[in-house]
Amino acid sequence: MKTAHELRPGNVIMLDGSPWVVQKTETTRSGRNAAIVKMKLKNVLQDSTTETTFKGEDKMEDIILERLACTYSYYADPMYVFMDAEYNQYDVEADNLGDAGAYIVDGMEEECSVTFYEGKAISVELPVTIVREVTYTEPAARGDTSGKVMKPATITGGGTVTVAEFVKIGDKIEIDTRTNEFKKRV
Fold it and tell me: How many CA atoms lie within 13 A of 67 on its CB side?
């Protein structure tokens, strides 16, 4: 059993008797109230999606499915193809990746975990941290130095991450894939 707060994109949970792939999580904390986790889920059997909200401490049945360490190989619209150490290829639908798709790029060296349900590759878990290059961000604004100043940045792969004010185009940054948050400049 995992709490809603521990789930991350790529996990598969059993909800109402059906397996659901977690595609996106967003945790919100407010004052003394308990954390709330908003999730985008995809039903593996019916190919439908839903967005729902859980309390951070709600327990979910995490299904133990077959997982295999793989590396990203190439994109064949609409499938991402991953390869294991024995050169077997597995297709994963782009829709099943959720936010993780923004971090998958050609030449990606990080090892991913491909999850299978009844022999079919249904989701991919990325490593906890990955390094990507900033392809676009606005320059730092003068005088805007009080507190923790953040700005949006586009990274290789097309995703958008909120980064610290000092990050420039061409910088490599470390991102936590569980929360989609900027950790540090590398």
Answer: 14
Distance of CA 62 to the CA centre of its chain: 17
Q: Token digits for 8?
A: 């991350």
- Quote the tokens at residue 37: 């986790």
Return d(Cα 172, Cα 51) in angstroms, integer: 32
Pinpoint the alpha helices (H) of the chain.
Answer: 94-97
Confidence at residue 145, expressed as pLDDT on a 0 to 100 scale: 66
Quick check: 67 and 121 in contact, CB under 8 A?
no
Cis peptide before 78 (omega within 30 of 0): yes
The predicted-structure confidence for 102-117, as pLDDT tens digits, reads as follows 888 888 888 999 988 8
The segments of the chain whose pLDDT lies below 70 read 144-146
Name the average pLDDT for the chain.
87
Q: What amino acid occupies position 67? A: R
Q: How far apart are CA 76 and CA 94, in angstroms?
A: 10
Residue whose tokens read 């009080």: 146
Write out the two tokens for 172.
Answer: 């490599």
Q: Where are the beta strands (DSSP E) in 56-149?
A: 59-62, 66-76, 79-83, 89-93, 111-117, 120-125, 129-137
β-strand partners of 113: 69, 125
